[in-house]
């Protein structure tokens, strides 16, 4: 098969779900040792020699898009033209969006339906907010279109599979749930000298609770801070809260919440960190907290578990499916539930060790090799169903 993959997320510097998914999936597919040809569409150079020199891989970097809304130009002008010339047997769009016009059979990965659930933020006007509004509107249109046009949809959890079928009015029979996995770098690190570098760089305390924050309200940073504020002073003193910013759009609002809950000195914010530093932070943390209101998968839960860190996470959407019985589940709408779980783990050493060991076993059940193998099965099914339709 000649398989085209819209792989621009692989070469982007911004970490996150799309980059992790695209990168690990492509390397997992190449590790299957098949003789298929992979045409990867990137928009900047990659330095990995294995990818560049693999004879099965052809990379098309494309032309530079006009400034402004380059993604739209790339997806609706460059990609259709290039796909028309290369004539692949199928096209995989791993980040949910892609061209309206494409003759080749399409497979699209819709990770979730968050774009259709989060309201537009029009509380104030700025060029950045206008750009985000237009891109969100564009994404909604494209994802709806591709959900109907695609021969097969891949998603990352059974919860997302049900949501996609319900909200986008798609027949559930053409949606396949294939879970994500943590990368191989997420593991227990015993080398204290290696971890010390991260401790010193970020001036971390010996013990701390770890969490993440982004510009999305669904991450429930307010609930996290309110729950943490309900802890006794002694617990907060021994276990400060360290929050990694994945996007700083609402940082000012969050700092105001810290002041409102009188948590100055108990909460530390970190800027965007590298993948290597994130692995170290998971290993150094006493526990990891993810009280999200909505997740299509929730990869940080597995990443923390693979590092031996006990996890507290929401009992909503896909998170119970991912965590299984290996995390302490809480009601994210009730801050007292979050506070109680933190105290429970910190005061019960037996329970703490149970969730640490259970998390390691749970994370071991997920692998990108398995994800790639199941994805390739979808490729084969689509190819057999549509053979010759792209020619």
Beta-strand percentage range: 5-15%
Main sheet specs: 7 strands, parallel
Structural class: alpha/beta
Total count of helical runs of at least 4 residues:
16
Radius of gyration: 22 Å
Mean pLDDT: 90
The order of strands across the largest sheet is 3-2-1-4-5-6-7
How far the N terminus sits from the C terminus, by CA atoms, comes to 13 Å
Unreliably modeled segments: none
> What share of residues is helical?
40-55%
β-strand number: 13
From the spread of the alpha carbons, the general shape counts as: globular
Helix-strand string: EHEHEHEEHHEHEHEHHEHEHEHEHEHHH
Summarize the structure.
The protein has helices at residues 17-30, 49-53, 70-86, 114-117, 127-149, 158-167, 192-202, 221-229, 233-238, 251-260, 275-284, 299-306, 319-323, 335-347, 349-363, 368-386; strands at residues 2-6, 37-41, 57-60, 90-93, 106-109, 152-155, 175-177, 209-213, 241-245, 267-270, 287-290, 311-314, 328-330. By secondary structure, it is an alpha/beta fold.
